[in-house]
């Protein structure tokens, strides 16, 4: 005999009320069908879910575990039904997505591929912007959702952390330090640096200024570029070394090596952001995909 949705719903209500009479009233049924449903459910599962006698009803340890799982299953089913209903009621929509350039190496392409498979009727426009520009675009209604590096956000913007990356030292492959397993700040305090333009990512510049000054060093920035890939390319031609997100190792750039920095915390959190006071069907569907991939540990 298979488990049914009716059994799940009956059990969840009964597990919340812990009283057959009140549970039956909530379900608008009499008590005998409720008791029968519980016996059938316990028979299917092969465990006792409730301790019951003439004085009280209580969840067994198995019942407490199954209550959580049943609520999760019913919640997912309700969400799926709501999404299908909203999709059927909606016209074609274009979802405007902002993304930092490094996100192309951090799980965004497979996310969008899954999203398109699930919602082929929703178009995508992707805008490459750095974090501050995305926040402005979001507040001005130019994008519906963004993927940024964690920075202070206005009150009207909501966020969801999606992962942690860290900065590493990028060196020309023939650099004397390129074969190290780790690099200390003392090794690079006089090295010429290629950095992302400070106006595009002031929070990163400030972070590294603070790290270097804590060691009584100063950043020796010789060249700046507007894109991370350009920073790595200039590094590969020996114009200096650079500090870049570790995910750029996946860029496939030749003639460079990426080496961790020792003794300093260079981690940063990536988030997706959206305006809490706006509505977008496509955005809500994408957020559901993101949360699902996070639960499955498939967002990296």
TrEMBL record:
One Pfam family here: LysR_substrate
Occurrences of domain HTH lysR-type (ranges)? 3-60
InterPro entries annotated for this entry? Answer: LysR_HTH_N (IPR000847), LysR_subst-bd (IPR005119), WH-like_DNA-bd_sf (IPR036388), WH_DNA-bd_sf (IPR036390)
Would the keyword Transcription regulation turn up in this protein's UniProt record?
yes
Which PROSITE patterns does the protein's record reference?
HTH_LYSR
Membrane-crossing ranges are none
Is Ribosomal protein found in the keyword set? no
A GO-annotated cellular component:
protein-DNA complex
Q: Name the UniProt key words of this record, in alphabetical order.
A: DNA-binding, Transcription, Transcription regulation
Enumerate the GO terms in the molecular function aspect. Answer: DNA binding; DNA-binding transcription factor activity
Q: Which domain of life is it from?
A: Bacteria
> In which family does this protein belong, per the annotation?
Belongs to the LysR transcriptional regulatory family.
Report the protein name in the record: LysR family transcriptional regulator
């Amino acid at each position: 005999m298979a488990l049914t949705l009716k059994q799940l719903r009956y059990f969840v209500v009964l597990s919340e009320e812990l009283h057959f009479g009140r549970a039956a009233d909530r379900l608008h049924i009499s008590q005998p069908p409720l008791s029968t449903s519980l016996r059938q459910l316990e028979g299917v599962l092969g465990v006792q879910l409730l301790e019951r006698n003439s004085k009280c009803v209580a969840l067994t340890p198995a019942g407490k575990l199954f209550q959580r799982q049943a609520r999760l299953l019913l919640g997912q089913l309700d969400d799926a039904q709501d999404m299908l209903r909203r999709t059927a009621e909606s016209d074609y929509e274009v979802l405007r997505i902002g993304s930092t350039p490094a996100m192309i190496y951090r799980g965004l392409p497979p996310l969008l591929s899954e999203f398109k498979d699930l919602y082929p009727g929703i178009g995508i426009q992707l805008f490459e912007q750095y974090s501050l520009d995305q926040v402005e675009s979001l507040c001005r209604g130019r994008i519906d959702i963004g993927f940024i590096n964690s920075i202070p956000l206005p009150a009207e913007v909501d966020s969801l952390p999606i992962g942690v990356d860290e900065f590493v030292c990028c060196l020309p492959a023939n650099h004397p330090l390129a074969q190290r397993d780790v690099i200390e700040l003392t090794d690079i305090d006089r090295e010429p640096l290629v950095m992302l333009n400070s106006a595009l990512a002031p929070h990163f510049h400030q972070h590294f200024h603070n790290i270097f000054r804590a060691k009584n060093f100063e950043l020796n920035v010789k060249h700046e570029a507007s894109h991370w890939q350009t920073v790595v390319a200039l590094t590969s031609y020996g114009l200096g070394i650079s500090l870049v997100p570790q995910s750029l190792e996946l860029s496939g750039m030749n003639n460079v090596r990426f080496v961790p920095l020792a003794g300093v915390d260079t981690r940063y959190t990536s988030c997706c952001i959206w305006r809490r006071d706006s509505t977008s069907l496509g955005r809500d569907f994408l957020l559901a995909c993101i949360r699902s991939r996070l639960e499955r540990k498939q967002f990296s």
